[in-house]
Design goal:
Length: 223
């Protein structure tokens, strides 16, 4: 059985980064963890149209994995298809945005989100509002870098330091969330630089998936 972490965009370098981010968690998992790329997806999910467009191929991809799945993680910060996949699958389904927000609220009082683009922020605001936790959000600020531009690590980290500093010092966020699966590699360095907790959403969701698998095992043992 396997926890499947599905990247809904078609950029393999993003999936490779996700795989590296969750590598330390494999030792703690009772089942395998496998990162997948949705080849039918766009190179980056940067609009509502992208979010809506990947739902059906994502559902089909996960349906083919259902029998061998212990859990699914949707590795895009817009959580595309989260409700639909929960309806379709008998397995636990985690979205990285939802999981990261829930995790951040256990680590601080006010969380800040680092988005990749300004146009991502309205989607995030709708989601935070739907979760009913808007009063815990300090601010959501963009890097103004597209998914493919994130491959320039030097420029990306400089933007992360600038936006993270403003979220910490101006918006008074005491925990930050990396609002894209494409910036997984920077969590530790950014946390060290800023001196506040930084939540990497793929790690947060996989941690919850491991917990759900463990919880299910206690139910089976009692049965």
């Amino acid at each position: 059985m396997t926890i499947y972490v599905v990247n809904p965009n078609s950029s393999q370098h993003v999936t490779d980064g996700i795989d590296r981010a969750v590598e330390p968690m494999r030792a703690a998992s009772p089942v395998a963890i496998s990162a997948h790329t949705l080849l039918e997806g766009p190179p980056g999910i940067e609009s509502q149209a992208h979010v809506d467009g990947v739902v059906q191929p994502l559902l089909a991809h996960c349906a083919a994995l259902e029998e061998s799945a212990s859990a699914f993680v949707i590795a895009c910060y817009s959580d595309p298809g989260l409700a639909a996949l929960r309806e379709q699958s008998a397995r636990p389904v985690l979205g990285i945005a939802e999981a990261s927000i829930l995790t951040a609220m256990t680590m601080g009082q006010r969380f800040g989100i680092i988005s990749i683009l300004s146009k991502s922020i309205p989607r995030h605001m709708r989601y935070v509002g739907a979760m009913g936790v808007m009063d815990r959000l300090a601010a959501d600020m963009p890097l103004e870098l597209g998914v493919l531009e994130l491959a320039d690590e030097t420029r990306t980290f400089e933007r992360l330091k600038d936006v993270g500093t403003r979220l910490r010092d101006t918006a008074m966020a005491d925990v930050l969330i990396l609002g894209c699966a494409g910036i997984t590699a920077f969590r530790t360095d950014l946390e060290t630089y800023l001196g506040v907790p930084v939540v990497e959403p793929c790690q947060a969701a996989v941690a919850m998936a491991i917990g759900r698998v463990a919880l299910q095992k206690t139910r089976l043992d009692k049965a």
